[in-house]
Structures are given as C-alpha cells and as structure tokens.
Known about the structure:
The complex is a heterodimer. Chain A contains nine helices and ten strands. Chain A has helices spanning about 45-55, 75-85, 100-105, 115-120, 125-130, 140-155, 175-185, 220-230, 235-240; strands spanning about 5-15, 20-30, 35-40, 60-65, 70, 85-90, 160-165, 190-195, 205-210, 215-220. In chain A, strand 9 (about 205-210) and strand 10 form a beta hairpin. In chain A, helix 4 crosses helix 6 (about 140-155). Chain B folds into two domains: about 5-285; about 285-310, no CATH class. Chain B is about 10% helix and about 55% strand. In chain B, the strands form two sheets. Chain B has a ten-stranded mixed beta sheet. Chain B is globular. The chains are: A alpha/beta, B mainly beta. The interface of A and B includes residues 77, 89 and 107 of A.
Amino acid sequence: MDDEFLLKIEDLHLERNGQKILRGVNMTIAPGQVYGLLGRNGSGKSTLAYTLMGCAEYTPDRGRILFAGQDITTMSITERARLGLTLAWQNPAHFEGLKVKDYLTLGMKEPSPARVEEALAAVALSPQVYLERTVNDALSGGERKRIELAAVYAMRPRLAILDEPDSGIDVLSLDDIARLIRRMAAEGTTVLLITHRDEMVPVADVAALMCEGEIVRVGEPQTVREHYARRCLPCEVAGPVEAPGGGYERL
Amino acid sequence: MSDFEAILKAYERSGGDPNFLRSPKVASLVISGNRVLGANQVPGVRIEPEEIEHGVRVKVIVEPGAQLDIPAHLCFGVIPAEGVQEILPEFEIGDGARAEFIAHCTFPNAVNVRHLMEARIHVGKNATMKYAETHYHGEAGGVEVVPKAQVKVDEGGYYSSEFALTTGRVGKLDFDYVVDVAAHGVAELVAKAYGYGNDAITVKETIRLNGEHARGLAKSRIAVRDEATSEVIGATEGNAPFARGHVDCIEVVRDRAVANAVPIVKVRDDRAYVTHEAAIGTVNKKELETLMSRGLDEETAVDVIIRGMLAA
Ligand SMILES: Nc1ncnc2c1ncn2[C@@H]1O[C@H](COP(=O)(O)OP(=O)(O)OP(=O)(O)O)[C@@H](O)[C@H]1O
Ligand SMILES: [Mg+2]
C-alpha cells in the first residue's frame, strides 16, 4: 500500500531569527518502519524534530504535518503526545527532585513498576541502582541519554523520534541502542532515528539524508549511507550550499 | 466523632501518621484550638502544657544527655472554619541531649483562621535538635500563619528546622526565625512553600554566627503561581573568626505571581566567610516541553517541575 503512512510531512518550511532552517521538507514514514535520518551537524535534524513535536517557536511558516490520519500542524505538544508522538531529546533536560522511576512513569498510559524496570533494563541500566536516582545533573551524559530512551520506550508511543540516541554513548554501547530500537519496533513503535553516525544506519529500514534543511535523498539504508559517507564530503570542502540544488543530486 | 478523632483525621490529611499520637512509646502532644487533647511523656522528655485564652503555652524539656530514639510528634490544629490559635512553646534541650520533633499544623476547614506560634528554643552544649514542621491549610486560602522562633544554639550544638507548606493553599504566611549560634555550633533552616491564588508568603530567616567556627545555612524553596506573592529575606551574619554561612534561595514564578528575594550577608570578622545565592525565574522551557512531550498538560507539567524543586 503506497499511501499508507503514519507520518507525512509536506513542504515544511521554518525560519528562525531570519534564517531559513527547514526549506521544504517532505517525508513519509510507514507504520512499523525504522526510518533513519542522516545529516551533518547543523543540517536541521533537531529543528525538524522540534517542529514535529510542536515546540514553542517551532511553528512552521509553510507546510503540513499529518500524523495517524490527522493534521497535527497546529496542535500543542501535549495533544501530539497523546496521539502517540514523542521525542527523545538530543540533550535531555535535567529535573531537580524528580526520581528516575517517576520520570519514566509519568509518560505511561498504564503505569506499571514492572514496565519501568523493563525499560531501564532495556537500556542496560540496573533498576536497583537507577530507580531511586534523581534525573538531575549528577547523572552522567550517557546515563541521562539512556534514561531518556528508557522513558520513551516505557511509553510505547506510536512514533518515537530519537534525536541522536547514539551521541554521548560509547562505541561499545552502540549495540545496546540498536537493540533497543529493534525492540521498540517489535513492540509496534515506529521510529524516526536521527543520527549522524553512519554505523547506526543498518538498524533502519529506510534512510534519508538531510542537507541544509532539505531531504536530498531517500532510499535503501546502505545506499544512503554510502552517499552520506562519500558524497557529503563536498559539503565540507565547498562550505554551505548556496542555491537549492547546489552540489547535490536532487531527488 | 470525638474531638481527638477529628484532630487525628486532620493530622492524617496534613501528612502525619496518627499511630504515633496514639502510641505510649512516642512522646507526643495534641492541641486542638486552645485545648490539650493529649500529652505523652517518655523517659527523658517532659511535656508541660497549659491552656491559655486563645491557645496553649507549653514547655518541652529534654533532660541533659537524653537520647530520643523515636521522634516526638506534635499536632496543632483548628478544626472549625474560624478561630485563633496561639501556640507558645519553650523547648529546652539539655546539654548533650539529642531529640527530633515532627510537627504537623492542620487547618483543614479554614475560612478565617489565625495561627500564631512564638517559640523559644534553647539547644544546649553539644546537644542536637531537629525540628520538622508540615502545614496543611485546606483549599480556601483563609489562613494566616505567623510562625516565629528565637533559637539559641550553645557551643557545639546542632539545630535544624524544616518548614513545609506545599500542599493546599498557603493563605498568608509570615515566617520569621532568628538563630544565634555559639562556637562550633551549627544551624540549618529550610523553608518551603508553594503559593497560588492570592496567597502571600513572607519568609525571613536570620542566622547570627557569633562563635568561632559556627556554621549556618539559610535555605528556601518557594514557588508562586496565579497572583500569589513571595518575599524571602535570608540573612546571615558572620560575627566571629572562621564562622561560615550560606544563604541559598530559589524561587519559581508563574503566571502573574511576583517573587522577591533579599539576601543579607554581614561579616564582622575578617576571618568569617558568608556566601549567598538567590535565583528567581520561571519554569525552564525545555523541562516543560519534555514533560509535555510525554503527554502531560502544561499545568501538570509545571506542577511536577515545581514539586521537584521543592523536594530538592
Ligand atoms: N534559534 C535559532 N536561530 C538561528 N539559527 C538557528 C536557531 N536554532 C538553530 N539554528 C541553526 O539551524 C541549523 C540547524 O540546527 P539543528 O540543531 O537543527 O541541526 P542538527 O542537524 O540537529 O545538527 P546536530 O547534528 O549538530 O545536532 C544550524 O545551523 C543552527 O545553527
Ligand atoms: Mg541535532
């Protein structure tokens, strides 16, 4: 079924402080897919994630976001989350006085201590050690990232946007993250995996490459990965693309 | 329901465990309005209450060297919608003694209640006193609470107080504690309040470090929403060599609420060292959006963040 989708983004434009950051993003994610979004630093991946989540000051100037059969473009963050969309933040916030177990529980539709423990175990954190810890800045960067992923996993969302779940995670632990993503998919969560590490690509079913606020390529993960690894080079050498299409093969 | 049962129920509503007030092994005092409904002494602790026109005067004496293994539980309440309650306690913690007090002040039906507390506290040489007081003022906002304490900590003594008014309305709070600390003594004051509606919070914590190596911490965590107001005055004086003090105030404001912080730091000896930090701001946007991305509505998310700040 060609037109079956969970998320469809149409011609999304966003400007911030006079700078065009998203320049006509189009994307279709099918239910159950793990969709890998690659792109170099500053290409607009997090901006797209915030726009999809509905964050303040990320209201698109043009375009539409369709999710689970509804136009969510003007919905609040809460409304989107209640439809089953959530985000694991690239640099997760810290919370004074909030315990890990409570942080994981607050997003669950059916709170269950067993699920909380399962979620911690799924990111290779021992429940005995972490349940009672506080989600404050005493956690290391990697621990905080894992807890963020656990919180999203515990929710069983329909679509999880994972913004660089691999950053701040050591190479040895990348497998843990890949395993978690497969586990989410197996539970029926569709995943938008944002990354700029091409080692993460094999976990995806489809991949896309973002450059200068546009999706410049979509297809087989392996092909997009190779393209990213090789063809992205001119970007660094030549600097930012000036005109749309400059330096890139268009879709 | 008997008056005793009624006050126990209110005590429970404010977060207390009524079993402590029934147990003969636990030192306790139960006051409803100006009546003493229960006073239980245990070895080493004397509790001598005396009813006065609008309240109760009470002497709490912990004998020198006595070690209280179970905290003493105190309950002060006004059950009717209106009333005045004056509590005039005098705590005498003998040299080397150690005692902990857990107090609950409860006015669950208050529409127009005034509660005044004027405490005199003496912590003897090398003695320890920990005092925690939790308030519940109901949902009408009709309470005026004026807790005042004059505390004297002798050489090597330790005094800590934690005041919490974080569930239900505040009404009007005018908190004022003054502590004098002798050499090698320690004082820690913590005040927490969460105001909304037209609640008005004033917290004044004064610590005077008068002896060598005396240490003090004046900490406050205050949140105000709607039209509520708060003013925190944290004053610490370093009056002796090697005295060390710190004022730590965090206030969170939302909506049209107004918060004010006045840290006062005085040093009268150039070998003393006193610091302060005060932060007033709204709820962090990223924290808020993170909780909303988990499905919480904005109001609930703000509440979770504020309660976390109050718990920290
Ligand atoms: N408020 C803003 N005002 C102006 N420019 C902004 C603003 N926010 C982001 N940008 C710019 O938008 C571009 C995209 O940023 P974004 O964070 O989306 O990149 P990213 O692809 O997620 O990068 P990274 O891989 O480093 O996380 C960057 O050039 C950034 O500097
Ligand atoms: Mg990013």
